[in-house]
Amino acid sequence: MKTIKRDYKDEYEKFQSSEEQKKRRAKRNKDRRIAEREGRVSKGDGKDVHHKADGGTIVESASRNRGRREKSRLKGSKRK
């Protein structure tokens, strides 16, 4: 089986540096700061801010948030 080497610089230029993605990242960071200010989450407590599809946020355990299976990872997905 042949491994394909990733071009991280190219990926960054195509996706992470786009204006839309910068705005999304800024909103995620802002939501996290607000949750910290409200005392719902803090560094090192094992919690993450989960961003729901409707745009809202909830606080849940990091293992649950990061362990959720994405549709692209499910068996039969055409995305590689």
Order of helices and strands: HHEEH
Total of domains: 1
State the distance separating the first and last CA atoms.
15 Å
Task: Give the integer mean of the pLDDT values.
Answer: 84
Structural class: alpha+beta
Largest sheet: spatial strand order: 1-2
- The dominant shape is extended
C-alpha Rg (nearest Å): 16 Å
Fraction of residues in helix: 40-55%
How much of the sequence is in beta strands? 5-15%
Poorly predicted regions are none
- Number of H- or I-type helical stretches: 3
Most strands sheet: 2 strands, antiparallel
Tell me how many strands there are. 2
Keywords summarizing the entry:
80 residues, alpha+beta, two-stranded antiparallel sheet, 3 helices, 12% strand
Question: What do you see in this structure?
Answer:
The protein has one domain (9-67). 42% of the residues lie in helices and 12% in strands. The protein has helices spanning 8-16, 19-37, 62-67; strands spanning 47-51, 57-61. The radius of gyration is 16 Å and the shape is extended. The two termini are 15 Å apart.
Provide a short characterization of the protein structure.
The chain is of the alpha+beta class and 80 residues long. It has three helices and two strands. It has a two-stranded antiparallel sheet with strand order 1-2.
What is the secondary structure topology, with strand pairs?
Blueprint: H1 8-16, H2 19-37, E1 47-51, E2 57-61, H3 62-67
Antiparallel strand pairs: 1-2
